Amino acid sequence: MKATAKAHSNMALIKYWGKRDKALMLPCNSSFSMTVDALYTITTVEFKTDLQNDVLILNEQEADEKARLKVSRFLDLVREAANSTLHATVTTKNFFPTGAGLASSASGFAALAAAAAEALDLKMGNRSLSQLARRGSGSACRSIDGGFVEWQMGIKADGSDSYAVPIAPANHWDLTMLITTITNEHKNISSRDGMQRTVETSPFYKGWLESIDDDLTQAKKAVVEKDFDSLGQVAERNALKMHATMLSSNPPFLYWQEGTISVMRHVQELRESGIPAYFTIDAGANVVVLCERKNAEQIQQSLIKVQGVQEVIVTGPGPGVSIL
Ligand code: PMV
């Protein structure tokens, strides 16, 4: 009744933005990501007969009630599948570089899903684990597999066809991401609330949905063919398009800070000077710079000097979830 799992985070190349079902965490569009080597979570779940409630220890401290309830509701899904009423102690640690303010929900819920399912001896393959992890945080469904992963949105109302599938393994291509954290990040709107507002109010959201298939097709083809420029171009375009839907929401909102824009301009200058690099941005101020491995160190050194940059983490593709 005890198991430990390790899961890596992922960075979207084609973004998930908008839910069609909030309870089941079903997306309005398919998305595509790279599981990253440098950021991961290790989680131990132990079901016990003498607990009245679930207990959550997060980074060596008892978590607040909001976080505990989120995990507890997630464990209800696992208990239901295993026909169990036992409560659990969940001990989880994020192995993320110092104070970078990076989101850990993808690796966190992927590790929790795998550890909890294993602890209750549910024999789940990656597809079922992906569906389970999705219920914790949408993007977590893409962290079950390693390398390059597509979350297929599915069309069924019960979500049984909405899960992630591997497109290429981690060793297929050493595409490099420079996770560039920006100082003074304070996110005033969660991705959950931000995407909801966008779906409900942005007149551009329709255009976002209409163009996803083309972006996804180009991105997957570029990864399979290891075509760096094609992937970089579509990833950058897709991220800016997502942020344009936020700017056109009512009321509008913007995650960027001064440092965000400085990094975007810097990437453009790198390109103009003949060094291939592109960027993508999630629902926050941080920028992820895409480059080829051979240029990673040079670009890292130049990024660290850009005004507003806090830290630059270099990472390649990482593995899928594993039971330790
Ligand atoms: O799964 P969530 O609720 O953390 O949403 C993720 C949204 C983006 O990071 C902006 C895009 C993505 O596909 O990861």
**Strand runs, count:** 14
Number of helices: 8
Structural class: alpha+beta
User: Considering DSSP H and I runs of 4 or more, what fraction of the residues is helical?
Assistant: 25-40%
Q: Catalogue the ligands.
A: (3R)-3-hydroxy-3-methyl-5-(phosphonooxy)pentanoic acid
Strand content: 25-35%
From the structure above, extract its key features.
four-stranded antiparallel beta sheet; alpha+beta; 8 helices; single chain; eight-stranded mixed beta sheet
Topology at a glance:
Layout: E1 2-14, E2 19-21, E3 26-27, E4 31-48, E5 55-58, E6 61-62, H1 65-82, E7 87-95, H2 105-119, H3 126-136, E8 148-152, E9 163-168, E10 176-182, H4 191-201, H5 205-224, H6 228-247, H7 258-272, E11 278-280, E12 287-291, H8 296-303, E13 309-315, E14 322-323
Parallel strand pairs: 5-7
Antiparallel strand pairs: 1-4, 1-14, 2-3, 4-7, 4-8, 5-6, 8-9, 10-12, 10-13, 11-12
The chain binds (3R)-3-hydroxy-3-methyl-5-(phosphonooxy)pentanoic acid.
Structure, explained:
This protein has helices spanning 65-82, 105-119, 126-136, 191-201, 205-224, 228-247, 258-272, 296-303, and strands at 2-14, 19-21, 26-27, 31-48, 55-58, 61-62, 87-95, 148-152, 163-168, 176-182, 278-280, 287-291, 309-315, 322-323. By secondary structure, it is of the alpha+beta class. Strands 1, 4, 5, 6, 7, 8, 9 and 14 form an eight-stranded mixed beta sheet that branches. Strands 11-12-10-13 form a four-stranded antiparallel beta sheet. It has a two-stranded antiparallel ribbon with strand order 2-3. (3R)-3-hydroxy-3-methyl-5-(phosphonooxy)pentanoic acid binds next to helix 4.
